[in-house]
Amino acid sequence: MRFLRRLFVPMLLSGSLALLVGVSGSAFAADEAGATGEIETVGKWGPVEKVAGDLQFTEGPTPDAEGALYFTDIPAERIYKLTDDKKLEVFLQPSGHANGLMIDGGGRFFASQMDGKLVQIDPETKKTTTLAEKFEEARFNAPNDLVVDSTGGIYFTDPRFRAATPLPQKVEAVYYRAADGTVTRVHESDDAPNGVILSPDEKTLYVVPSMSKTMLAFDVQSPGKLGPGKTFVDVAQPEGAERASGGDGLTVDAKGNVYITTNLGVQVFSPQGEALGIISLPEQPANVTFGGKDLDVLYATARTSVYKIPIEAKGWRFPGAGK
Length: 323
What we know:
Blueprint: E1 8-14, E2 17-22, E3 27-31, E4 37-39, E5 43-45, E6 49-52, E7 58-63, E8 69-73, E9 78-82, E10 88-92, E11 98-103, E12 109-113, E13 117-121, E14 128-132, E15 134-135, E16 138-139, E17 146-148, E18 154-158, E19 172-177, E20 183-189, E21 193-198, E22 204-209, E23 214-222, E24 225-226, E25 230-234, E26 250-252, E27 258-262, E28 265-269, E29 275-279, E30 287-291, E31 297-302, E32 305-310
Antiparallel strand pairs: 1-2, 2-3, 4-5, 6-32, 7-8, 8-9, 9-10, 11-12, 12-13, 13-14, 15-16, 17-18, 18-19, 19-20, 21-22, 22-23, 23-24, 23-25, 26-27, 27-28, 28-29, 30-31, 31-32
């Protein structure tokens, strides 16, 4: 889940196609809202609908059990709540520049704050409790994304984006905060580990680097213990791109299909790494999740907006360890 100021600038607008050119020189072609499509083994999706706009940089979408969606606006230091009837309200401000969010099956609400902390938020009182803020006596760089396992442990990424320089941790990494509070570093990378998610059976941890086209998968040997990383997929690249780009955020459906946000849209892969299709959006997506009461809607946070995409696939809610 990157956050870079003025990451994309409009270059051309013609009919129903907008061409946006990124700082890396790659192009992002975006269809207008209303797009539909169909993906093999996943089903039909669309039409794409904008449900929130005029924001600064949206990220971290996560649904609650009632169907409301929470997401972050990083530079505004806000966490928003969007209800089914499209009512948008500020849930928490300031947010510590919160990025990734997750509400588990027990209703526990977690956030990764780019100001250096992993926190838990009480949904009723909005009280914030720090779960982790240091590793080996140094603060984290800028916690980015997270996923909660069924023991109550939390995997979270800590890349370079919005971090102080030199990096407080000296490396970019993935960490695991066990339910007893113990924090371990489980993976190091120079490619900006960004999005992170588990497979529904929690046997595989997926890590999305932003500075590499190669998405990683790790066998989970036990909570917080990973086998060696292996290539899951290489994400598709824009035609004519000057250099390879990676992913940002991701989610999984109940069948284990993986949805990765890239500068082409949401790229969908089977659990075996087969490319199934791409869901196009009007703006480059930063993150994606399943929402709605039945987890049958994709929500994508995309720069200044949030988009809703009905889909035939069903999402997966990680149970967590209960309340």
